[in-house]
């Protein structure tokens, strides 16, 4: 797996699968820590990893207990996102409030 492929692996949570993280630069460091430690739906591969280590981690993600826990966590996040983005979810309400406050109240 090449570095760009590992970066693009970030789409994992959107597809309801745990993430395998190897941050290289920029905000990837923060995203990796947040995904692995805060959200609980990823595992980090550290610098200097070997093929066998990647294989072990991928197997754990796909078949192991930790992977099953992460998949469950990903589904919980998915449900929360669906609720938040629904018509009466907090994101929709906040966006409507922002539009009302910024665009509609400030018309000259």
Automatic annotation (TrEMBL):
It comes from the Eukaryota. GO terms for molecular function: quercetin 3-O-glucosyltransferase activity; quercetin 7-O-glucosyltransferase activity. Keywords: Transferase. SUPFAM superfamilies: UDP-Glycosyltransferase/glycogen phosphorylase. Belongs to the UDP-glycosyltransferase family. This is Uncharacterized protein. It comes from Quercus lobata (Valley oak).
